[in-house]
Amino acid sequence: MNFLTEELEELHRKDLHRRMRRLDSPQGARTVIEGKECILLSSNNYLGLTEHPVVKEAAKLAVDNWGAGAGGSRLTTGNYALHEELEQEISHFKGTESAIVFGTGYAANLGVIQALAGRGDAVLSDELNHASIIDGCRLSQAGVKVYRHRDTEHLEEMLRQVQGYRRRLIVTDGVFSMDGDLAPLPKIAALAERYGAFVMVDDAHATGVLGGRGAGTVDHFSLEGRVQVQMGTLSKALGSSGAYVAGTHELIDYLRNMGRSFIFSTAPPPAAMGAALAAVRLVERQPEIRTRLWRNARYLRTSLDKMGYIVPAEDSPIIPVFIGDAAKTMYLSQALLEEGVFAPGIRPPTVPQGTSRIRVTVMAVHTREDLDQALSAFARAGKRAGIFS
Ligand SMILES: Cc1ncc(COP(=O)(O)O)c(C=O)c1O
Q1: What are phi and psi of 248, to 5 degrees?
Q2: Ligand 1, atom 8: nearest CA belongs to which residue?
Q3: Is 314's pLDDT higher than 90?
Q4: Is 177 annotated as catalytic?
Q5: Which of 113, 202, 290, 361 has its CA 20 to 30 A from that of 316?
Q6: Does the CB atom of residue 214 touch ligand 1 within 6 A?
């Protein structure tokens, strides 16, 4: 297998080889990364629930009551009362008739898109959608039309072109994972109604974060009943693992029967389901956790902006700090790490050329002291990287 050596060398040559950083502690506002304590500014654990005592206790209880694994797929021997209880809670939280859980968000996007679109159908997808959506589109064998990021005029143009197709599915991230900006969902829903399409939103980064009830982008934009497929993860703000799809009874029944990544995969483990159930209930009952997240996000964003960094004005806990040049971005990320802040640099091919950035995310559990310390580190590291004098 000589090609392995050659292709790995090629990655190194192009400075695109990736390696994993090891965490030596649980994931909180301060986390030990490869032996060094850092302020963590890169987690999707937005509400800090991976470390919440109620969530951890629920995971332990689920193991005691149900065991370590599910032992089969949901349609064979792996459908526990706990899975059904979680699905009921999610549909209550989302305000939909029903819900279904998947092992991961990646699997959910593959399974749902493949089930809902096939040969003769069209999928219209935002160019910055998550890789799992892109892969779901590929697997579906539908005609895929990629529209410019958040450009609803371009989307409309494409909707006109696909009027002859059997079905039309518009799919978009709710909050885009690398930019933190929101999909123009009200306009997308209106276009879908006008052109006879249906809409799927991926609320991986919106669940537990956006909306008056924390239920995601549909809640945020008050679009109840106008977005047919709401997917989200249990692995980010909810602090567990897995994913859900919420919608009508019919949609969920269809996915149970046609979603290949649901059918042909072992049911998610009890610990993850128990933790997610406790997390959804916390989001529903303790909005103050979300309030802390938003307070922190606004403080960090405005402070970085005042310091001279380029940050978009978008209101979101994902704060891309744009540097542009890939090498400079990686230098800044390393300088931040030396200053005790973990915030990874993101460069092509993950993001378009010339838009390399530090992807900063904030958590509800950061204290003002954590954030001020991180800001001082940004000031010093920025000077070292030659971003400002
Ligand atoms: C927008 C989006 N969708 C889907 C996923 C996949 O979810 P999971 O990590 O649960 O597989 C992610 C992140 O990983 C994501 O950012």
Answers
A1: -75, 165
A2: 105
A3: no
A4: yes
A5: 113
A6: no
**Annotation marks residue 205 as catalytic:** yes
Q: Tell me which amino acid residue 305 is.
A: D
The pTM (predicted TM-score) of the whole model is 0.97
Q: Which of 56, 83, 145, 236 is catalytic?
A: 236
Average pLDDT over residues 35-58: 97
Ordered domains of the chain (ranges, CATH)? 18-46+287-384 (3.90.1150.10), 53-285 (3.40.640.10)
Confidence of residue 313 (pLDDT cuts 50, 70, 90): confident
Mind giving me the DSSP string for 130-167?
-HHHHHHHHHHTSEEEEEPTT-HHHHHHHHHHTTTSS-
Mutate to test the pocket of ligand 1, among 101, 104, 106, 203 (most ligand atoms within 8 A of CB): 106
Which residues, at least 6 apart from 184, have a Cβ–Cβ distance to it below 8 Å?
Answer: 150, 152
pLDDT of residue 46: 98
Averaged pLDDT for residues 279-288: 98
pLDDT of residue 16: 81
Gyration radius from the chain CA atoms? 21
* Helix, strand, or coil (residue 207): coil
Q: 333 CB less than 6 Å from ligand 1? A: no
105 close to ligand 1 (CB < 6 Angstrom) = yes
- Residue 18: band (very low, low, confident or very high) from pLDDT cuts 50, 70, 90: confident
Exactly one of 98, 177, 235, 240 is catalytic; name it: 177
Average pLDDT, stretch 375-385? 95
Q: Indicate if ligand 1 lies below 6 Å from the C-beta of 243.
A: yes
Nearest residue (by CA) to ligand 1, atom 9, is 105
Chain mean pLDDT for the chain: 96
CA distance 283 to 14: 43
